[in-house]
Amino acid sequence: NPMATRRRTLLKVIVLGDSGVGKTSLMNQYVHNKFSLQYKATIGADFVTKELQIGDKLVTLQIWDTAGQERFQSLGAAFYRGADCCALVYDLNVAKSFDSLDNWHEEFLKQANPSDPKTFPFIVLGNKVDIDGGRSRVVSEKKAADWCASNGNIPYFETSAKEDYNVDEAFLTIAKTALANE
Ligand code: GDP
Ligand code: MG
């Protein structure tokens, strides 16, 4: 019975990064295939879910977004509790949002306190690669890749929530790395 080998796995993913980098937009594009240029700092729900099949496993990704509290760095304990993967997002047209990755990375490790911080699955997303066809970027691919390499070989994707570029690929990698760490 092939169904007997199927297991449903719930993976909690939290998305961190400076306000305005596109965290909510990436989630909306991935889960609802929608994008809006209108800026909404808050959303109603704590998390959204998406089901996907990985090998013989049915995975439910539970993706937690902030409601704008990242501006004050006061995300509650419930936000971090039990996270299986942490996506760190920056805007590759805004230097400060890349510089903030260190803080978000540290803050996650402090708050979520994973049993093995060295192997905990992170992913980095450099978003808004669509703007000006990439001509207004201020963070080079090499700089981002170097940061990822020196923080435990974190997978790195350049994405556009607007153009739906690399969004599915990034979240699939999130699911796979979280699953591999189960
Ligand atoms: P958050 O604060 O990190 O959740 O960022 P939002 O998802 O609210 O996005 C902030 C602003 O950037 C909004 O106006 C979005 O429409 C815009 N935005 C988000 N992602 C992209 C993208 O990939 N490309 C472009 N051009 N704009 C984006
Ligand atoms: Mg948001």
UniProtKB/TrEMBL annotation:
Compartment annotation: Endomembrane system
First-listed, main subcellular location of the protein, grouped into a coarse class: membrane
Keyword Amino-acid biosynthesis listed: no
Record keyword Transport present: yes
Membrane protein topology class: Lipid-anchor
Record's keyword terms, sorted: GTP-binding, Lipoprotein, Methylation, Nucleotide-binding, Prenylation, Protein transport, Transport
Protein origin, superkingdom: Eukaryota
Family label: Belongs to the small GTPase superfamily. Rab family.
Protein name in UniProt: Uncharacterized protein
Species whose genome carries this gene: Brassica rapa subsp. trilocularis
Lineage: Eukaryota, Viridiplantae, Streptophyta, Embryophyta, Tracheophyta
Part of the intact protein present: 59 to 240 of 266
